[in-house]
Design brief:
Elements: H1 2-35, E1 48-55, E2 58-65, E3 68-74, E4 77-80, H2 83-93, E5 98-103, H3 109-112, E6 119-125, E7 128-140, E8 146-152, E9 158-162, E10 189-195, E11 202-206, E12 212-214, E13 217-218, H4 221-232, E14 239-240, E15 250-259, E16 264-272, E17 275-280, E18 286-289, H5 293-298
Antiparallel strand pairs: 1-2, 1-6, 2-3, 3-4, 5-9, 6-7, 7-8, 8-9, 10-11, 10-15, 11-12, 12-13, 14-18, 15-16, 16-17, 17-18
Length: 306
């Protein structure tokens, strides 16, 4: 009788433990779901047609026109964006995963910079807003682990987004623009003609066997390769937005690049009261060179090739 009672007791205890476990699992998950979001960012990158980023007085609006990204500079002025720059920023949003809840009310918003001092990101898909998030203060857990405080504007909860850098969400328009002045492959160049004042103009051309010459004189292959590499990778973020190309009259320097297929590019420098203005056939934006460093790289002298 005692043995049967003992077995009966064990069964009751076992059933009780199972019920307790199921109850904890069920009610624990319910409690967690009431306060914790499993996902913060749910966007379809193929449908995104506009992104607005705001931090304080700094604001940038990016939008798609046909299949190309544009940057809105003023109410009636837009310029081409560098697609990769926009897409990289959007990709960074997808890395935002909720870590721990750092705060459950507004008292900590200012401390974690997820109030108006943070970077607000609004994402639109087919015209509808599908994400409204604030990225705030950046923090380090150790030398290898980092996080950013984030908050959905519709929620009070503040989360840590592990391994996410809020600085990737730039509100500067220039950071999304095409900053390249020239677009050519050094291996495909046939010749470059540099037009300079006086008798300093010259042409560098590639001969059979990939040897270079300047006006019939053999060029130094190592120096030429280095100079052409610099030219082909030149970028500049000093954009001039208030001038139009047709306003530029006083040309100072010009470089005309021709490739093996007969296609060409030109880049020229103009004197203007604002400073030296650079115009490129590849990039429709105008650039301003205030310290002359860009001018030196774009228009090298003969010694750079000899």
């Amino acid at each position: 009788m005692a043995k049967k009672l003992s077995n009966y007791t064990l069964i009751i205890v076992l059933v009780g433990l199972v019920l307790l476990y199921l109850g904890v699992q069920y009610f624990g998950k319910r409690t967690r779901s009431d306060n914790y979001r499993e996902k913060l960012v749910e966007i379809d990158t193929s449908k995104i047609d506009k992104v607005i980023l705001t931090k304080g007085k700094s604001k940038v609006e990016l939008f798609k026109e046909n299949k190309d990204w544009k940057v809105k500079l003023k109410e009636n002025q837009t310029v081409d964006a560098e697609d990769n720059s926009v897409e990289n920023m959007i990709s960074s949003l997808l890395t935002i995963k909720p870590g721990r809840i750092a705060a459950k009310n507004e008292e900590k918003w200012k401390e974690f910079q997820v109030d108006t001092s943070g970077t607000r990101v609004e994402v639109f898909e087919d015209g509808d807003k599908t994400l409204d998030l604030v990225a705030g203060k950046f923090g380090m857990q150790d030398q290898r682990s980092f996080y950013t405080y984030v908050r959905l504007t519709e929620d009070k909860e503040v989360y840590t987004a592990n391994d996410f850098i809020g600085y990737s969400l730039s509100t500067e328009a220039n950071n999304y623009r095409n900053s390249r002045l020239i677009n050519f492959n050094t291996d495909s160049i046939k010749s470059i003609s540099f037009t300079y004042p006086g008798d300093s103009s010259f042409t560098i051309s590639r001969l059979v066997g990939k040897k270079w010459q300047i006006n019939g004189q053999a060029a130094d292959s190592a120096k030429t390769a280095e100079t052409l590499s610099t030219l082909s990778n030149l970028t500049h973020t000093g954009f001039e937005n208030d001038l139009k190309p047709e306003e530029l009259k006083n040309e100072l320097f010009k470089a005309s690049i021709t490739d093996n297929k007969g296609e060409s590019e030109t880049v020229a420098a103009y004197s203007h009261e604002k400073g030296t203005i650079i115009k490129s056939s590849y990039n429709p934006s105008l650039f301003i060179d205030k310290d002359g460093e860009l001018l030196k790289k774009l228009f090298p002298g003969k010694q750079k090739f000899l």
